[in-house]
């Protein structure tokens, strides 16, 4: 029953991303919210993406495909998209159609083996704070994605923390509304929980805080490590 409830919460959380919402996503989230509320201008996440992306890359929780369409290197040999929401997958795949992306529709918290070749890098931007449960419960995402990452491959991304970060009045109000509506589930997401979850599955974990946003990167432990 608990699994069913988790799946239902995930479905309800991602359902917000309709075509109409996606049409204003870049303006509202990446333009307004990042700068004024979360105090992490989008250029910081863009630079982090550029620093970590490889030519064999999987993007998880694709949104509009903003980072892919604006910052994906031309030398990219293979790009794949993974999301539960068909609208997001359509929007992002159309934006980078010239790269002929692989497209996978799946729930990262309840994901079965995709049966695909592994990737050298995986990005997870602004997905964790939308998933249901505590960060400990959400860390199943890292366990699942690890199976898709080559040895010494890099997993990186960003998430908005709700606990232990300084928020202005408007940021707190917006976060309250988002959590109440089920768009966010991050009231108890904090830096220690994120660090512990990443270190459980990966090595070389690095986390950088900018405003309310945690930028993180880590490497897949090689097969001879426990």
UniProtKB/TrEMBL annotation:
Domain of life: Bacteria
Keywords: Methyltransferase, Transferase
A Pfam family it matches: Methyltransf_12
Official protein name in the record: Methyltransferase type 12
UniProt domain Methyltransferase type: residue ranges: 58-155
Organism (species): Vibrio caribbeanicus ATCC BAA-2122
UniProt GO MF annotations: methyltransferase activity
Keyword Transferase listed: yes
The keyword Acetylation belongs to this UniProt entry's keyword annotation: no
CDD domains: AdoMet_MTases (cd02440)
GO biological processes: methylation
